[in-house]
Amino acid sequence: MLEIQINHHQVTSHFALNHIQMKVKAGEIFALIGKSGSGKSTIANIVVGQTITKDASIQINGKELNTESDRLIKLFKEVGYVPQNLHLMPHHTVEEYIQRLVQKRSVQEQEKFIQKNLKRFRLKNAKKTKIQHLSGGERQKLALLEAISKPIGILVLDEPFSQLDTEQKLEFSSIFKQVIEEEKIPCLLISHDLLDILSLSQQVGILHQGKIIFQGNWTQFKKSKNRFVLQLQHAMQAWKQKVDNLFEA
Ligand SMILES: Nc1ncnc2c1ncn2[C@@H]1O[C@H](COP(=O)(O)OP(=O)(O)OP(=O)(O)O)[C@@H](O)[C@H]1O
């Protein structure tokens, strides 16, 4: 279980996070959505330990990460993080890159890890391709693979869909969901587009000007009369109507 509590975090004189509370169970995805500038990346950075704040608590199974000593580390040790801008070494092939992730293991274990994950992440056909020549979807899959290649207690992804086309989004979603379930990790997923997280997350939180103005499961989302949720529901219905019209025509 991941428990996040950020009481107050002042970013600028005009912007602060206030009263943020989220709980994510093992194997579940909590999708945090909000418009640009609502504070999503600031929350992600606090949860992974890249932004230091004292008035916050980040706990994995009751163990506090946000302590004086852990705040000195650039990224909390138990955290897997896929940032918005990926930093993958461009001149390695996919296979070399994966091997590098597990180079401390025995040769046999390395080979087992490589074969298992080339299959699981559907990267077999790209194994000899240099990272600089990969598609956006392949790069995103490799970044996720890297994040889970060490023992972690939580996983945080910041806008993983923003560089992907529709087909890549669908493929990445399905692999991502399967990996989270298999690894049984609580996951915080940051996104600005509700359509990307539909049927992917168990819970959704809506962030507005540094505050969470709705959080719950999809049944609660459907029933909610919160004005921000209603706006999103209308947008979704409009999309559905467009798709229906296209296929009925
Ligand atoms: N290092 C910084 N210096 C000054 N202002 C900042 C800094 N980081 C964030 N902000 C401000 O804090 C607010 C929240 O930014 P944040 O990046 O968390 O939003 P976001 O929801 O992730 O936006 P986006 O979807 O565009 O990435 C914005 O008003 C932003 O300008």
From TrEMBL:
One of its GO terms (molecular function) is ATP binding. InterPro entries: AAA+_ATPase, ABC_SmlMolc_Importer, ABC_transporter-like_ATP-bd, ABC_transporter-like_CS, P-loop_NTPase. It comes from the Bacteria. Residues 1-234 form the ABC transporter domain. Keywords: ATP-binding, Nucleotide-binding, Transport. This is ABC transporter ATP-binding protein. It comes from Aquirufa rosea.
